[in-house]
Amino acid sequence: MRGLESTERLGATMHAHVHRMLLALFALVLVTGLALAQPLATESGFVEVEDDVRLFYQRFGTGTPTVFIPNRLELTHAFAELLAGHDVVTWDPRGRGLSSRPDDLSRYGLEAELADAEALRRHFGAQRVAYVGISLWANVAMLYAAHHPDSVAGVVALGSLPIAAALNAPAEDPIVHDLAATVAEMEAMRRDGRDRSEPYAFCVLDLLVTFADSYVDLANMAPFLAANVCQYRNEHLDRILPVIFEGIFASFGDWDWRADMERVEAPVLLIHGDRDGSREGVRAHVDHLRDVEWVLVSDAGHHVWNDRPDLVLPMMAAFFERVRDDRANR
User: Which pTM was predicted?
Assistant: First the structure.
């Protein structure tokens, strides 16, 4: 396994403006113990899924994995209390975190995500997993269940895309935060070159501006900030956004997954924030899934798992127990 020290990381003294803006949030991280709550991984390493693509993973628990969670960097903090009681594999998708990042954007997409998940399942000898996905990875999780019904015991889909592109719609009550000062600071950093000389500080501001409208309350970004994703070059938005939009999202085309959802045999826990977009388009999954629990969470944005962990995490824990019981009774 390649040592983590050989992977490109960025560290820089945080600019004073960043420090002032995030002081309250960092204090919240410290006071609530988020930075300390994450359990220690029992194993870390890389799985080679193509000749030149390796995915970084971490395992929690010592048994055969029963829970799969992509987007390791953010979600190991957000889901810390769930990790301790389950055998989990969580990984950085290709192009993210410590995983390989092919320059050719045609090497990203739905088929690559499905193939990578299957390669990981085979590598760990997992049989029937509970697959957790956020945002577009929620749809990847449901589509994986459609393509590999014998390998999935359940799906947790958080903040998914609508079932069809034609149903994609903005939020009825969009979230708006006043970040004019932050945007101005970013523009000043670009003008005087500090976006390049202080890439870590610029990345933090960039993430705040980009993801602020995913949160009803900016204080709920604490788990996201605790992940400290800006230490990894792959997580800077100039590298993430092409992968997500030109690579993965573009591969969906004019999608319509209604027929795919008819093939999903596993139970699905479908959770969506009431301030997120495409509410009815996401709810339309209910008409095509055999076994689905639809939950519309109040006072929550796209990152519903961070906006309302008080509701989402207990629902996920109960769902994992149901899946565990169903697996034991097969």
Answer: 0.90
